[in-house]
Design a protein that fits this description.
By secondary structure, the protein is an alpha/beta fold. 47% of the residues lie in helices and 17% in strands. Helix 5 (132-138) packs parallel to helix 9, helix 11 packs across helix 14 and helix 13 (313-326) crosses helix 14 (350-358). The N and C termini lie far apart (46 Å). The structure holds nicotinamide-adenine-dinucleotide and zinc ion (ZN). Zinc ion (ZN) is lined by residues 185, 249, 265, 269.
C-alpha cells in the first residue's frame, strides 16, 4: 500500500494505491468526511466487474449509493450522457457536499469529473481509475474533457478529486493490448523527465507486464510524480510547461484519427514518439544510441514502432494542421534532447515532419 498527497495547488488529493482497495472504498469515503450518500458513475464493464465490491463496501460503511451505468466507449464522453446524469442528480436532489465517484477508465474519469465540476458549480469528486491509462494520466491533473462532433475533448473543465483510490488488481482484467497501450504513457513519462525511470522499466519489463504487485505500485507512484511535476506551476495549461506531456501526441493524435481508431491511443503515441525521436535525431539533438534505446524499449513492451500499413502522409499532415493553427502557425513539437530531457522546438522544417511521418510505414532504424 502506498499513500501520499498531491500538492495543494493541484487540489491536494490523497492518493491511495492499494491492492484490493475497492473493497475498502466505504471506509476511505468516510475518512474523507463523507457519510450519507455517494453517486457512483461506472461503465457497463467496470460496473459488472467492480460495482458489487464498491456497493458492498459503501453499505458496510453506512453510505447509500446511487449508481449510474453508462455504455463503454468514447461515445459516453458527451453532453448527452452528462445530461442523463444531471437528470438523475436533480431527481435525487443531490447536494453540493455529496461526492461523485468515478469507477472506470479514462472515459468514465473524464465524464464523472466533468459532471462533478459542473453540478451545482462543483461537487466533490472521488476517482477510482480502473485502467492504467486512467490511473497514471486521466485521474491526475484536474482536466476533464467531453467530446464534441467537431473534435475530441473540446468541452471541459478543471476539477480536482479529493481522493484518488487506485486498486491495481483491477488491471488484471484489462485486455493485454490495453495494458501495453497504457504503458506507452509510462514510457513517455520516463523519456521526457526521468532517464533512471526508463532504466527501471527496461529492467522490470517482465514484472510490469506480469502485474507484479510491488512493481506496479512503484510504477504508478513514479508516473504520478512525473505528471505532477509538469502540471504544478501550470495548473490551467496556460504557461506551457504541460506541453511536454504531449510528447508523441501531435503525430500520434493525427494517426489515431486517420486510422479511425483502429489503433489504441497509447499505440498511436508510441508511433508519435518514434516520429519525434527521428526529428530529434535529424536536428542533431538525440544521439543514435539514445534513438536506438527508445525503439528498443517500445519493442520490448510490444508497442508498435511501425504503422500497421501504408499511411497517407498528406492526410496525416492535414490533421496536424489544427494543432498548428492553435499555435499561431508554428510547427511546434516536443522533442528529446536526451533520454529524460524534453524540449519544445518551434519551426521544425516541414520536410522533416513529412519525412518522420512517411518513415513510419517502414521498420525504423536509428541514424539513417
Ligand atoms: N483528462 C485527462 O487528463 C486525460 C488524460 C489521458 C486520457 N484521457 C482520456 O481517457 C480516455 C482513454 O482512457 P482508457 O484507455 O482508460 O479508455 P476507456 O475508459 O474507454 O477504457 C477502455 C475499455 O476498457 C474497459 N475497462 C476499463 N477498466 C477495465 C478493467 N479494469 N478491466 C476490464 N476492462 C476495463 C472500459 O470499459 C472500456 O471498454 C480517453 O477518452 C482520453 O481522452 C483523459
Ligand atoms: Zn496520451
Amino acid at each position: 500500500m502506498r499513500q501520499f498527497c498531491l500538492p495543494r495547488e493541484i487540489g491536494g488529493a490523497r492518493v491511495r494505491i492499494e491492492a484490493g482497495g475497492l473493497h475498502h472504498i466505504g471506509t476511505e469515503l468516510a475518512r474523507e468526511g463523507f457519510s450519507g450518500r455517494a453517486f457512483l458513475v461506472a461503465d457497463e464493464n467496470t460496473h459488472r466487474r467492480f460495482g458489487s465490491a464498491v456497493a458492498q463496501s459503501c453499505a458496510d460503511a453506512g453510505i447509500s449509493l446511487l449508481t449510474a451505468v453508462v455504455p463503454p466507449g468514447e461515445g459516453s464522453k458527451s453532453l448527452a450522457t452528462s445530461s442523463i446524469l444531471y437528470d438523475q442528480l436533480a431527481q435525487a436532489n443531490w447536494h453540493r457536499d455529496e461526492p461523485i465517484v468515478a469507477l472506470g477508465g479514462g472515459v468514465v474519469t473524464d465524464l464523472a469529473g466533468f459532471v462533478a465540476a459542473t453540478w451545482l458549480r462543483g461537487t466533490p469528486l472521488v476517482s477510482c481509475p480502473t485502467s492504467l491509462q486512467a490511473a497514471i494520466d486521466a485521474a491526475i491533473g484536474g482536466k476533464c474533457g467531453l467530446n464534441h462532433p467537431a473534435g475530441k475533448n473540446l468541452i471541459g473543465a478543471f476539477h480536482h478529486p479529493t481522493l484518488v483510490l487506485i486498486d491495481p488488481t483491477c488491471f488484471e482484467s484489462l485486455p493485454e493490448r490495453a495494458l501495453r497501450a497504457g504503458l506507452a504513457e509510462s514510457i513517455k513519462h520516463a523519456l521526457i523527465a526521468d532517464e533512471s525511470f526508463l532504466t527501471w522499466q527496461e529492467q522490470r519489463c517482465d514484472e510490469i507486464l506480469g502485474l507484479d504487485g510491488p512493481t506496479i505500485e512503484e510504477l504508478l507512484e513514479r508516473n504520478i510524480h512525473i505528471k505532477i511535476g509538469f502540471v504544478q506551476g501550470d495548473t490551467r495549461d496556460t504557461i506551457g510547461s504541460r506541453i511536454k506531456l504531449n510528447f508523441g501526441h501531435t503525430v500520434g493524435h493525427a494517426i489515431e484519427t486517420h486510422l479511425g481508431f483502429e489503433l489504441l491511443h497509447g499505440e498511436c503515441v508510441a508511433l508519435g514518439m518514434v516520429a519525434a525521436a527521428w526529428m530529434s535525431t535529424r536536428l542533431g539533438m538525440l544521439s543514435d544510441a539514445s534513438h536506438h534505446r527508445l525503439l528498443s524499449v517500445l519493442r520490448r513492451f510490444e508497442l508498435p514502432t511501425k504503422a500497421p500499413g501504408p499511411l497517407e502522409v498528406d492526410a496525416i499532415l492535414a490533421l496536424m494542421e489544427y494543432d498548428k493553427k492553435v499555435q499561431a502557425g508554428r510547427r511546434r513539437f516536443v522533442l528529446l534532447e536526451e533520454i529524460g530531457r524534453a524540449v519544445v522546438h518551434d519551426n521544425v522544417p516541414d520536410d522533416l515532419v513529412r519525412d518522420s511521418v512517411s518513415r513510419l510505414s517502414r521498420e525504423p532504424a536509428p541514424g539513417r
